[in-house]
Amino acid sequence: MHASALRYRDDFLDKLRYQRNLSPHTLSGYRRDLTAVCEYCDQHDIANWQQLDEAAVRAFVAARHRNGLSGRSLQRNLSALRGLLDFLIVENKLKINAARNVRAPKSARKLPRALDVDQTMRLMSVPPDNDIARRDRAILELFYSCGMRLSELVGLDLADLELSESMLEVTGKGDKTRRIPIGRHALKAVQDWLSVRTTWTVTEDNTALFISRRGTRLASRSVQQRLDYWARRLGIDLKVHPHLLRHSFASHLLESSGDLRAVQELLGHADISTTQVYTHLDMQHLARVYDAAHPRARRKKSDITK
Predict the structure, then answer these.
(1) For the chain, what percent of residues have pLDDT higher than 70?
(2) Out of 17, 31, 178, 269, which one is annotated catalytic?
(3) Cβ-based neighbour number of residue 207 at 10 Å
(4) How far apart are CA 285 and CA 273, in angstroms?
(5) Catalytic one of 17, 65, 243, 285
(6) Does residue 25 have an active-site annotation?
């Protein structure tokens, strides 16, 4: 594309960064999605955004879909493009948003995988026999007790803890804060870690709850590696990652309480439809119990092979 078109794209990304205060991860996604559009335009001699019409946008979506991109990824591509074109309309560079009426093909919604209760309890049984293990145990317990995102956990500061009230303040997407109760096992694990943290080399201005041996805030990648390490060591035959524990928290809580609205609040979902995916997990669990236990539901082997 022409240099001016790329400059408009960069101006839009700057606006997202400085005015909307989006995270580096989200900005990286926007840049990646818009780069895909720019590459398509280069391949089809579209030099600027004024030349991008609705037919071209539909062709872009179709080409990406043929190459195996999922409906969800295409929705993200289109969302980024709509945002850019709306920005150009506000800046009086465009009159019409060519992506406004284009929709991505729907793809089957994948249910999130979750640990069962036995697997979760095994993962929480990290032996606190050294300082690193005490820190890691606190991380695991908080993930499962509070259902936090990875970015929320690594962003925790000491001031976010309200230990006397067994509460935690979390800053989630869009800088929205929410208070989450801490379970008693997680509370004890955090208190054990705090007694260790004071013995590590930490600068006075480092307010991070979880730190490395070097005294720096623990990085997201380090947390992922520690979860993978403990899953393998404790014999869990699954790829354990932070979001798996978030899914496990939500599905176990919903299975026990049936309170979808409370689970939505605890997870920090803006839209309850995002939380409703866990009702499908719950129904799968109930269906398995029914099939295994109900006298009129169990089938003979001969029935299955017919």
Answers:
(1) 86
(2) 269
(3) 14
(4) 20
(5) 243
(6) no
Residue 268 pLDDT: 78
d(CA 88, CA 75): 20
Give me the pLDDT at residue 70, please: 84
Distances (CA, A) of 246 to 147, 175, 252: 4, 19, 10
What length does the chain have?
306
* Residue 294: active-site member: no
pLDDT, residue 305, reads 45
Question: What's the rounded Cα separation, in Å, for the pair 143 and 306?
Answer: 46
Measured CA to CA in angstroms, residue 226 lies from 138, 139, 241, 243 at distances of 12, 9, 9, 14
The two three-digit tokens of residue 80, written as one number: 């980024």
For residue 54, what are its two tokens? 């609705």
Burial of 154 (0-12, 13-18, 19+ CB in 10 A): buried
Mean pLDDT of the chain: 85
Q: Among this protein's residues, is 44 annotated catalytic?
A: no
Residues 227 and 190 in one domain: yes
Q: What is the C-alpha to C-alpha distance for residues 114 and 263, in angstroms, rounded to an integer?
A: 15
Provide the CATH number for the domain around residue 172. 1.10.443.10
pLDDT band at 297 (very low <50, low <70, confident <90, very high): low
Could you read off the pLDDT of 52-92 as tens digits, one per residue? 999 999 999 999 888 888 888 899 999 999 999 999 999 99
Residue 41, in any domain of the structure: yes
Catalytic residue among 9, 64, 137, 149: 149
Tell how strand 177-181 and strand 167-171 pair up. Answer: antiparallel
Respond yes or no: is residue 269 known to be catalytic.
yes
Active site residue 185: no
Catalytic site includes residue 149: yes
Distance CA(245)–CA(114), nearest Å, equals 7
Catalytic residue among 173, 188, 217, 285: 173
Here the CATH number for the domain that contains residue 18 is 1.10.150
